[in-house]
Protein 1
Amino acid sequence: MAVSELDDSCAQFAAFQAQAEELTAGLDEARFNWRPAPNQWSIEECLAHLIIVGQRQIPALETAIQHARECGWTGDGPFSYGPVERFVLDLAKPPVRNPLSAPARFRPLHGQPVTGVLPTFLHLQSQFRLQAEAARGLDLRRVKVPTPRSRFLRMSLGMTFAIAAAHERRHMEQAKRVRDLLG
């Protein structure tokens, strides 16, 4: 039996939890906040950025899923997605081909403690998994979710999960490169 989109999303969010714990294991505050260069993010900033974006996505997912349940928008996959959504997914995926600067509202504060950032990040991953579970049985293409960048730009529910996971994978890889430089 093929793995469903939602199963894949749940597995990825669980993997991000494990990766974050591994990335931060044994780090003191100075190493957690260390930047390889003044214009590059620390491990803390990578995780904090994902928290900021995710905290906008979770309520949007909850609202869209609730609305879809009320409307009875059910469906079985596999689902196919249009070229615009696939293009946005490609932009979010690593490796980064054309780096984009994060908008000011998504830039994290530098110097936050690992004891604050890590538990919040782990909780966020659990919230993504809960929303993916709540989306089971819905038409993942028909249900639309506002994006964190603009409430006017809406993506299908299935692609919202895929793009969120790709964006997280991108910044987890960035954080891993920082950890590798730390030794």
Protein 2
Amino acid sequence: MFIAELQHPEFEKFSFPALRTGIMAGSPCPIEVMKQVVERMGAREITIAYGQTESSPVITQTRTDDPIELRVSTVGRALPNVEVKIADPATGAEMPRGKQGELCTRGFIVMKGYYNLPEATAKAIDDEGWLHTGDLATMDERGYCKITGRLKDMIIRGGENIYPREIEEFLYTYPKVADVQVVGVPDLKYGEEVMAWVKLKDGYSATSEELRDFCRGKIAHYKIPRYVKFVSEFPMTVTGKIQKYKMREVAIEELGLDAAAHVATA
């Protein structure tokens, strides 16, 4: 929603003298978008809330008096009476501060379970009552969390773990890019390759090689998208959630990767 508002062709004709605060939530907010909302829309006390339907729904949130760098780069701290930990996805052990793992939460906000789905509930909530969000994150010494990606979205290319969120945040800094989503697609040699779906700002044009040139020397070579698809919209749910699995399905069909997909999943 904020991206669409910022890209409105008549945006500069509007002013927002009464806009002071608000909440960004629902899907990950790129740092560059948050900065623009603060600077161009004047919402200097806007906060970010993070959570899930299963957590009623907010787990962490920034505060209006947090320094601006924390409000644009983190999802804040746990709400009162809510526990948050970063856990090793493989063992469940709590990770040291600053180390990436799965964000888990416990407290009054956590659901009782999925209706008539005991197995799914057991997968989501462990024996100690921790809800496993499926989101990768880090937590600093002050308790501020940064969401770094989704466990299921992680790309494994030639043995290297690649987190789409990192590449997306970088590509948002390219002046022509309005929005971007990164997915992994099957590859016979490396197992998976990186693909970027890119929405350009109105009136701009770009090529795949131009985007890759922007990446060279700034991010690791194996994180540079092999495939780039320019689009006007992304597959989304009715509630506005990006459907990355559909992006992957479209890419496999359009790029003729069926054979690679068979090998990758065999």
Protein 3
Amino acid sequence: MAEIYERWVAAHGVILATPTNWYHTSSSMKLMIDRLVCADGGNPDPTTTRGKDAEKAKEIELAGWPFPKHLKDRVYGLVVHGDVAGVEETRYALSDWLDWMGLIDAGFQARLDRYIGYYKPYATSHEELDRDTAVQEEVRNVARAVAGAVRDVRAGKLARPDAKLDRPRPK
């Protein structure tokens, strides 16, 4: 996770892609989300806890810190796919989480949920995807939208509309 977190920090934009498993993201996606909790208001200076000293971390948090959103203002796109049900709910949950973290949605075409091989056998799902050139182009559009939004953010043309508002409840 340390390597993945460093990549999140270095990124100007991210695209998350996940299958839908029983109305949820994949277990590996969920593990990443859980481990990114430190990016949502975590300790603004991790060196103060000398590693993973839980008691010291509690002491520092209770003394007060501003709950910084370490990943805010990065651009995001989503690709959620499934074969039977739940893609919309999974996309909504991921969008809400990324919005909460302060990331910037790259627009309608950067949020994709699609069924691939709807009610077809798992054994041939790759063939369904190979034939679905429209969904392949939609995935490319997610990437194009994210790239365009990153360019606009870096040029100062795009920002979160609520960026200057104070959060009365930062946590």
Protein 4
Amino acid sequence: MKGACVIGWPIGHSRSPLIHNYWLKKYGIDAIYEIQPVEAHKVAEFISTLPSSRFIGCNVTIPHKETAFEVVSTVDQVARRLGAVNTVYLRNKTVCGTNTDGEGFTASLKQAHPFFRLEGKTAIIIGAGGAAKAIIGALLDEGAEGIGVINRTRTRVQNLQKQFGRSVFEIDEAIAVSQLKNCELLVNTTSQGMEGQPPLEQDLQNLNPSALVADIVYTPLETVFLQRARDRGNPTLGGLGMLLHQAVRGFELWFGVKPEVTTELYELVAADVQRVHQQ
């Protein structure tokens, strides 16, 4: 049976099969989506041989996104800007790649907070890795005016400035607290606060009371960082929505149907996250 898959190492934790198989059943598509554990040294071979395999495409998770970018035959503008591919698909047996992480974040934001507008807004991003890069690109595409970056490694921030230009500026940790009063969107793009990781210690004392606070972490569904923001009265956005929305375009590219992120799907995946959390 034809289908798609998600590749990574390790990969057993992935919720992608839960998401895509829900959609396949909902839309009556005779296909399957599954997990494929692929070690780093086998990524190039796996992706390059997709046209002769039973798979019509795949999702790519950490740490294989950069390798996938190098292996696919063609990439779109978004993947080229990020230097990373998270979605691989076939067109006339040509292996193509894109990256949906950034659009997953903005689509999640729009669904959860439909009256929030990014145009002209000032955002602050915590972290400067691959997720930060994807979200910064998406925010600028949506018209954000300025994006401050808080990160311990200055060279990473400087690389983001080189890539995105004057819209991105560095925020020194020593003055971060005072800078938060001008912030309209605050996003944690690090793994801090994830189960098994240390909590994010960012001081929210001077944060703009109306700023939207987001976290890309979804295990737990609500991090301590988001709890602290909610307790202050700030609107919040958890990371599960981004996971669901980044899957939409891949499904459409593979199966020709643009799926909907519904409350039912959110609750299905949230219940699975909670179940694992309680074990």
